[in-house]
Structure prediction request, 654 residues.
Amino acid sequence: MGKYIIRRLIMMIPVLLGVTFIVFFIMSLTPGDPAAIILGDQASAEALEMKRIELGLDKPLLVRYATYMGNLFQGDLGLSYRNQIPVASQVWDKFPNTAILAISGILVALIIGIPIGILSAKKQYTVMDNTSMVFSLVGVSMPNFWLGLLLSLLFALKLGWLPSQGMGRGFIGLLRSLVLPALTLGTGAAATVVRMTRSSMLEVIRQDYISTARAKGITEKQITKKHMLKNALIPIVTAVGLQFGLLLGGAMLTETIFSWPGLGRLMVDSITSKDIPMVLGSVIFMAVMFSFVNLLVDILYAFLDPRIKSQYSKKVVRRRRGVVV
Amino acid sequence: MQNPDDILSIEDLTIHYETDEGSVHALNEVSLAMKRGETLGLVGETGAGKTTLARGILRLVPSPPGVIKQGSVFFEGQDLLSLSESKMRSIRGSRISMIFQDPMTSLNPVMTVGEQIQEVVEAHNRDLRQDEIIRQANAMLEMVGIPAERSHEYPHQFSGGMKQRVIIAIALACNPVLLIADEPTTALDVTIQAQVLDMITALKKRLNTAMLLITHDLGVVAQNCDRVAIMYAGQIIELGNLDDIFKRPTHPYTRGLLGSIPSLTKDVKRLSPIKGLMPDPTDLPPGCKFAPRCRFVTEACERAMPEPTHLSETHQVRCILAEAEVRNG
Prediction:
């Protein structure tokens, strides 16, 4: 198992090299002179030239990339053009806020998605199943920003129950300000989770071992929990993992609508102000987060399915070869 | 109608599958009785309704689309079809168990085999302590010839034959009165088939369990059963003990089945298969279901389904020819 994790970590390196190179390359193609962005329109030609040399912009792309990667491996993501504060520290500052939002969003998705998905599968083609399928289709198709606007229109403006902007102080304040953005993120993800849970459960329901379980005379509740759900969990975990990975990278639209001080908004702001190091830094951070969550999902597989686990532990394989009857 | 010696007595059981393409008449007015400890072979081609009958006894016919239209299943004096779901659960796995066809897919892949045996012990012995449950489950594993240390392993670590042994251990864990084995060896290779069947037979003798053995292999029937029921298109068309069926087969279908077995001792140039296919179960003929394929078919055959005729104490058959023979003495 340890070997498996190390191998997966090593596999992350080429992924990250690819991501950084592509982002670096695209950012260098965008019009606009970084030196002019930093110094402003009134700067003299000499000052601009000096700044360009200082930023290393006179060197070829590959050399700049190599320097950037060298610094990256030391944890240095460069300075923000806008405010000259290290990118890494800004990203780290915003990350907890995004993490709080992502975790609450995914919780909302799980609490709504899994029970409805299970019920839908067990009562396939009933009114309940059809209703939940229609709602989840709406949920998947509805853009987040639109739902977010509607929610804040109703609960913040009309009813005035909840704040629509920013992150509240104190535990209660934080919770109150979390409700709307978490619901916005959660319902979209919940729709995916419902559909995944339903289809994965439906596949399991028809399996022979469910008949065996029924013939044992155990209760329907136990059959659902121990026999169906446990086998249906892998695709569900995959879907939830992907959603969570996306959310951890910062939900740009939702964070912008609710002025949530997270990574997503940081990225939007840096794109609009052409803050290249900031954009690069946050994209790389997102990619790392995404790969990391995927790694966690892969490790979870092994715990959910003993067949996957046995592929990675030599002990079991040898035992299996020894006793073939 | 009910004989006090019978542990199981099925009367007029009719099960249909209601689908968009029409109503599939899987089981049509089947009556059958079984005594304590006996082995009854249920033989028929694919689609004859053997599995539907087996699942019908345990009320495990998938529903929808399956509907039990009429009939009764008396087991130990009570009609299983009128029991509450929770009463029925207390019978499944404890008084009546079932072994399914394919051992490769009949075990839950994410539970250890030990847990899967413990589950059935626990479900029917609520007051047992955990260590006692584990002890009993391990004893069952040992009984089917698997070392108890392997109880912590998962199904994928076992071969097909071993998996079927685990399934047998699950089925016999609560010492049932009746074991329904739905083609328990079809998915296994021949040498393992014999091993598994011998083991089932030995265990059922030891525990005095009655067994309904579903198969399409007449050789298996001859070796393991006391009585045989031949099914065709959702009906039992001939029922008798081994001698009745193998020495005095009466229904043309039964004779056809026996005629299609290759023999090592007799010099037969060609096997005589039964021509044609089983009728479409959504559109069964009104008279004898076998009439379209029967060599001796008469007009009367196509008019009405013959009622069971008793040829002897043990032997009964649904055929108009046998009926006439008995009437004429």
Remarks:
- The longest helix of chain A spans residues 87-122.
- The interface with chain B takes residues 207-209, 211-219, 222, 226-227, 230-231, 304-307, 310, 316, 319-320, 323-325 of chain A (CB under 8 Å).
- The CA atoms of residues 16 and 287 of chain A lie 7 Å apart.
- The two ends of chain A are 27 Å apart (CA to CA).
